[in-house]
Design a protein that fits this description.
- This protein is an alpha/beta fold.
- It contains eight helices and 16 strands.
- The protein has two domains: 256 residues, Rossmann fold; 125 residues, no CATH class.
- Helices cover 23% and strands 22% of the residues.
- Strands 4-1-5-6-7 form a five-stranded parallel sheet, with helices on both faces. A four-stranded antiparallel sheet has the order 8-9-13-12, with no helix packed on it.
- Helix 2 packs across helix 7, helix 3 runs parallel beside helix 5 and helix 5 packs across helix 6.
- The longest helix is centred in the middle third of the chain and has 21 residues.
- The chain starts with 21 loop residues before the first strand and ends with a strand.
Length: 411
C-alpha cells in the first residue's frame, strides 16, 4: 500500500475578494497517531491550504502570516525528536473534500496533536488547546483579509491510547466517553466565540483500536474504544469517522504506517462531507441497535449507511466467530459461529444455552495483550463487518466502506 500514486494537482489560491469563497478549517488533535509519528511522507502537495509555518505552527503567530499549499512533511515533535513526525491524515482529508467539487470552497488544516498526551494534556486550558484557538483566530483574520468567509468544519481527534492505559485510575466507568463529549462542547463554545459561526462544530473520532498493550477487554467500561462508541451513541456531535482497526498496519504497534494515515484521512473527509457539508444528521456508518439472547442464539440488529451488511476479510483473517465473543459469570458458553441472517442482522450461535449471570455479547474486543509486538493481531480484533457503501476515495483507489465499531451489549 505504501507508495500509492495520488495524482494530486496543484492547489490554486483564489484571488483576493473572490465572490462567496469560504475558507473551511479542520483542526487535528490527539497524540502520536495524530502527529504521524514514525511515518514517512508519501503524499505530495495536497488540494488544500495550511499556514506558511506548516501544519504544526503551534501558537506562534509569526509563522501564521499567510496561507500556502498543504504539504505533509517530516518535522520535529514536541519532545525534540528530529524528523519524527511525518505523514498525517491531513493531505488525504482535504483531497477527499476537494474532490467533492463544492463551489467557492477552500479547505485548510492545522494540527495540535502531541505525542503521548492524554485528554488532560489536550483539553480546554492546555497549551495545545490554546494553540488551536490561536490558529482559528489567525485563519479567520487571513480569510477576512482576502474577502473570504470562514468556518471551522470540525475537530478530528486521533486519540485514546494513553487514556486507555490509565483504565480505572482515570475516573468512574465511562469517564473517557464523558471527556470526549466535554471536548466537543468546549471546542464548539470557544471556537464559536472567535468565529461567530452558529453552526455546530462536531468532534470526529477514529475508534482507538491500536493492537498491543492498550487492550482492556476485561474492563470494557474503561476501554477508550468502547467509550468512543458510547460517546457517539449518546451525543450526535461526537462522530465516529471509522474504527481504526481495519485500516491500520496491524503488524506494528503502537504507531501506524503511512498508508494507514492516508486511508484514515479519507474516512475523516467522508464523515465531514456527509455530516457538515451535506447536513446528514443520521450519518453513523454501521451501528448496532440491539441484541437479544434466545436459547443458544443471539440476534443482533444494526443500522447502516448503505445496506446490506457483509463480512469482509480482506483486512483480516477469516474466522467463523467473525470477531464476536460471548461472556458471562461462569463462562458457560462460547461463540460457535456468526452469520448474516438479514440485510442488517447478524445471528451468533453459541456452543450451548448459557446458564451464567451477566451475559454479554461483544464485537472486536478480544484482547491482544498476550500477543507479542510484530505479530498479526487481526484475528483477535475482528474488524470484518461492513456495509455496502461504495463511496470512492479521492483517487478512486479505495472504496470507503463503513466498518462496524467495537461494541458490547448486556443481554
Amino acid at each position: 500500500m505504501i507508495g500509492i500514486g495520488l495524482g494530486i494537482s496543484p492547489c490554486v489560491l483564489a484571488a483576493p475578494n473572490a465572490p462567496l469563497t469560504t475558507l473551511y478549517h479542520v483542526i487535528i488533535t490527539g497524540q502520536s497517531n495524530g502527529t504521524g509519528a514514525d511515518a514517512p511522507v508519501y503524499t505530495g502537495p495536497a488540494n488544500g491550504l495550511m499556514f506558511n509555518g506548516g501544519l504544526r505552527p503551534g501558537g506562534d503567530t509569526s509563522i501564521m502570516t499567510s496561507l500556502v499549499q498543504l504539504q505533509d512533511a517530516l518535522t520535529d515533535d514536541a519532545s525534540g525528536d528530529v524528523g519524527d513526525e511525518g505523514q498525517t491524515v491531513a493531505s488525504t482529508l482535504v483531497n477527499f473534500l476537494s474532490a467533492q467539487n463544492i463551489p467557492h470552497a477552500q479547505f485548510m488544516v492545522s494540527n495540535v496533536a502531541v505525542d503521548g498526551y492524554g485528554y488532560l494534556g489536550l483539553c480546554q486550558g492546555t497549551q495545545p488547546y490554546n494553540d488551536s484557538l490561536t490558529q482559528v483566530a489567525q485563519a479567520k483574520a487571513l480569510a477576512t483579509a482576502r474577502g473570504w468567509k470562514y468556518a471551522v468544519l470540525g475537530v478530528c481527534a486521533v486519540h485514546g491510547e494513553d487514556d486507555d492505559a490509565i483504565g480505572s485510575a482515570g475516573g468512574p466507568p465511562g469517564w473517557y466517553a464523558t471527556d470526549l463529549q466535554t471536548w466537543q462542547s468546549d471546542y464548539q463554545t470557544d471556537i464559536q466565540a472567535i468565529t461567530g459561526q452558529e453552526t455546530d462544530i462536531p468532534l470526529f473520532i477514529s475508534q482507538c483500536s491500536t493492537p498491543g498493550d492498550y487492550a482492556h477487554s476485561d474492563n470494557l467500561d474503561y476501554s477508550t474504544s468502547i467509550n468512543g462508541w458510547q460517546a457517539s451513541r449518546a451525543n450526535s456531535l461526537v462522530i465516529m469517522a471509522s474504527p481504526s482497526a481495519p485500516i491500520v498496519d496491524m503488524f506494528r504497534s503502537p504507531h501506524w504506517n503511512s498508508a494507514s494515515y492516508m486511508i484514515l484521512g479519507e474516512y475523516f473527509g467522508k464523515a465531514i462531507w456527509r455530516v457538515v457539508l451535506q447536513s446528514s444528521s443520521i450519518w453513523k456508518g454501521v451501528y448496532p441497535t440491539n441484541a437479544t439472547l434466545t436459547g443458544d442464539t443471539i440476534v443482533i440488529n444494526f443500522a447502516a449507511q448503505v445496506g446490506p451488511l457483509a463480512f469482509d476479510y480482506s483486512t483480516g483473517i477469516k474466522s467463523l466467530i467473525a470477531g464476536f465473543e460471548y461472556v458471562d459469570s461462569t463462562s458457560s458458553a462460547a461463540v460457535l459461529s456468526a452469520s448474516l441472517t438479514g440485510p442488517l442482522q447478524v445471528t451468533v450461535t453459541l456452543t450451548a444455552t448459557p446458564s451464567g449471570s451477566s451475559p454479554q455479547i461483544r464485537y472486536s474486543t478480544l484482547s491482544s495483550n498476550d500477543v507479542p509486538y510484530g505479530s498479526d493481531k487481526r484475528l483477535q480484533s475482528g474488524v470484518c463487518l461492513v456495509d455496502s457503501d461504495t463511496t470512492p476515495s479521492s483517487t478512486g483507489e479505495w472504496t470507503l466502506r463503513n466498518y462496524c465499531p467495537a461494541f458490547y451489549f448486556d443481554l
